[in-house]
Specification:
about 400 residues; about 45% helix; 13 strands; 3 domains; alpha/beta; elongated; Tyrosyl-Transfer RNA Synthetase; Rossmann fold; Structural Genomics Hypothetical 15.5 Kd Protein In mrcA-pckA Intergenic Region, Chain A; five-stranded mixed sheet; 18 helices; six-stranded mixed sheet
Amino acid sequence: MADRRLLDDLMIGAVDVLPEGALEAKLDRAEREQRPLRVKLGVDPTAPDIHLGHTVVLNKLRQFQDAGHVAVLIIGDYTARIGDPSGRSKTRPRLDGAVIDANAETYKEQAFHILDDDPARLDIRYNGEWLAPLTMEQLFEITATTTVARILERDDFAKRWEAHQPISMLEMLYPLAQGYDSVAIEADIELGGTDQVFNLFVGRDLQSHFGQEPQAIMTMDILPGTDGVERMSKSTGNYVGVNEDPRDMYGKVMSIPDDVMMTYYRLLTPHHADELARLESDFKSGAANPRDLKARLAREIITRLRGAEAAAAAEEHFDSVFRRHESAADLQALALVAADVEEDGNVFLPAVLERWFGQTRSEWRRRIQQGGVSLDGEPVSELAVPTAALAGKHLKAGKSAKAQGVIRDL
């Protein structure tokens, strides 16, 4: 029988494991046959950089590696040429092959921050290996395994069909191409997001057609962005990039709302299920300070991605600037000039903010009145401030990292 603790750990962050009991059956068979499972994750390199939202499935893949199984990371250099229609309300623009190849290299580099690169535990494949050589006869055989009616059952296709929006034949081939990847690498388990369920089941169908045991399917929860509301995305700006400066990563994690903190723990850290239960209990009971739990979360995320030294430096930077209000050496110097000081010895803040950061005086006046400008963490209430009250202070105006610095005296 599969180890109960391992099963509980593998289920962390999972929305569905289909069919019911399939994961346990796969693990039992692997134990009986003394062979590792082949756990598949396919990624289309449509962009060069990834954020923490993309790492959710990579973290799960690493968990399978740590349990002794083989992660099969498929770089979709061919499926990216089609474009995954999942969740799309219109056809995705086709990408140039050279762009896809360049993206693939940076994606791999970032994935190695999480995955174990031991060749015995990692198999990296490009699906152009088996999709490019397909003959028309082989393509006919693959397409004959499904129907147009079934393809149109996809939620995104169904909505577009009803709205009389175009659906290209190329897009209809995408689930079959992704599914054939499972045949080519003989996947035991495939990981994906909740928007991938249709594609994952097509993989099972194709495996059955080609005489293989169908894969188990595991879909993962979606990581909310730093706003705690929408899913993490570059388009909404609520993301934490894997290749960002660790200091920025730390600050962004510390900014997430308390009520999504445990979701971040579940999806981004390697804790066992019982450890997560204790952390959540301490959080809900008030036995643990939410700020301390969030600081631990930030350290653990950065340690996994960039190492313990980078995490420690990022925490020290954050504490020095935002807890001890010390002036960090790399904060920009906001120098006052003689013209900034009025006859009464005061500095009219909207004027100097306009000079330092742009925008208009009226905009800065409004921000100050709304509490959007602070000195050493305390909101500024007056438009005119004595020069002596500014020197050496850490000023922050709004959420932009560029709109902050240490004020230098004349």
